[in-house]
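User:
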Amino acid sequence: MSTPSYGGSNDMSERAAGLTDAASRQFDRALDGAEHAARSAAEQGRHAMSAIDQTVRQQPLASLAAVGVLGIVIGALWKMDSGRRSSSRWY
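Assistant: Predicted structure:
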């Protein structure tokens, strides 16, 4: 009898193990990248909060005015969106 040309089941097991190892390494690299991105985002968030805190302490009235304007804009967008939703109902 002749043996299969692809090397038999042992060769397939080795290839599967190699693919598993490669996938595991790729997953570890992706996880490391995600952890780095999360740490970086947290650090940027801390810097942003520090800057906001400093600005509010230095210019409280300007900060209050900016929050008021932001509230008006969000309210206007919300009202515009809810008006569009109620007019587009087909049931």
